[in-house]
Specification:
193 residues; mainly alpha; two-stranded antiparallel ribbon
């Protein structure tokens, strides 16, 4: 499925949806009442608005556990812009949930090339590496994530879990890490955003 450009009329370049699957996806994303308004729009507006809508809608579906719908939206976003770091990262996290570790690692690493200081991407890579048994590499990623965002909840929680899997971690080191956690986060998880 792809979005094809037709010859530009005098007022500028426009999009035309060529395939039924994409038409259905956009019906789902935008609702039938907004469909006509969004089908034909300038290409530069598609980049700013539709890509954002696809990623936001995919993330909402992902959080709701609607993985097939989220995957369709992430893939559509990547098809439109294969270099989009956010789309790569989100699709990588979805593949991680599905235990496609090779696919997840590839996409998350590509995202990390574009966003090298992102604690969220570093956390995702650390999670993939941990799931594949590469604990020392995972620890490096999670430590880097915490360097960029000290006290960030998810990388810190993943690091605490990981430390229990690494042979040779002393009880005092683990206790110190837990004490630091309690000082930053208390005993309750943070409110969901």
């Amino acid at each position: 499925n792809r979005i094809l450009l037709r010859k530009a009329p005098p007022e500028g370049p426009f999009l035309r949806l060529e395939f039924p699957m994409l038409r259905t996806l956009f019906h789902t994303l935008l609702g039938k009442t907004q469909w006509k308004r969004h089908v034909v729009r300038p290409v530069h507006q598609f980049d700013e608005l539709m890509l954002s809508d696809l990623l936001n809608g995919g993330a909402e579906d992902h959080r709701a556990g609607l993985l097939e719908s989220a995957e369709l939206k992430y893939r559509a976003a990547l098809e439109h812009n294969p270099d989009d770091a956010a789309a790569m990262h989100l699709m990588g996290t979805l593949l991680l949930q599905r235990r496609d570790y090779d696919g997840a690692e590839t996409l998350v690493r590509e995202s990390l090339v574009r966003l090298p200081d992102s604690p969220h991407v570093l956390n995702s890579l650390g999670t993939v590496l941990s799931a594949t048994g590469r604990h020392s590499e995972a620890r490096q990623c999670l430590d880097r994530a915490l360097q960029h965002a000290p006290g960030e909840y998810k990388p810190f929680a993943n690091l605490l879990f990981l430390m229990n899997l690494i042979p040779g971690v002393s009880r005092s080191e683990l206790f110190d890490l837990h004490r630091k956690w309690a000082g930053l986060h208390g005993t309750r998880p943070p409110e969901q955003h």
